[in-house]
Task: inverse folding
């Protein structure tokens, strides 16, 4: 039977990683992957609500993927060149074909409100696509966008509230 792909997408601070960690069992049949690029939390998936779980840092799809029943992938938007070797959407399809369930959390858009193409492709493949919103850091309204608080010259850059905020339509603005 084909595996099921679930995608949690939204801006930063929307609880994407928390869904990944709280909705699925922490057992030997579940493999957690995090991009090697994101060194903030070492080899673990960590959510801002205090949940964490050991993860394998990867820059390509794990060769032993078929040994697991479920693969959880955090920060899916980072799984692109030059940080990821290969095509993660195709790699996920291979896993689904083998009957492995895959669940991905990631940003749907960058801080300029431009789509992460890889997340668009995963949305198209997903059996369940779950759009999440955060709370606007300015007004508390539902926030669909990530804003960068100052220009840094880097598009892909990890950071926390020091660098990013969630913003509603009214309060989002480009740092550039
Ligand atoms: Zn607002």
Result:
């Amino acid at each position: 039977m084909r595996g099921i792909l679930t995608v949690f997408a939204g801006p930063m601070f929307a609880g994407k990683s928390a869904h990944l960690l709280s909705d699925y069992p922490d057992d030997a049949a579940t493999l957690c992957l995090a991009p090697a690029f994101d060194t903030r939390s070492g080899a673990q998936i960590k959510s801002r609500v205090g949940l964490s779980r050991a993860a394998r840092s990867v820059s390509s799809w794990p060769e032993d993927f078929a040994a697991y029943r479920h693969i959880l992938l955090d920060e899916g938007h980072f799984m692109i060149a030059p940080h990821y070797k290969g095509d993660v959407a195709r790699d996920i399809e291979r896993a689904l074909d083998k009957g492995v369930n895959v669940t991905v959390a990631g940003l749907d858009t960058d801080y300029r409100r431009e789509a992460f193409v890889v997340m668009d492709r995963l949305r198209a493949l997903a059996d369940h696509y779950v759009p999440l919103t955060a709370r606007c850091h300015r007004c508390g309204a539902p926030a669909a966008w990530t804003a960068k608080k100052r220009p840094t010259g880097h598009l892909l850059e990890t950071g926390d509230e020091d660098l990013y905020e969630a913003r509603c339509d009214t309060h989002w603005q480009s740092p550039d």
About this structure: Residues 88-97 form the longest helix (10 residues).
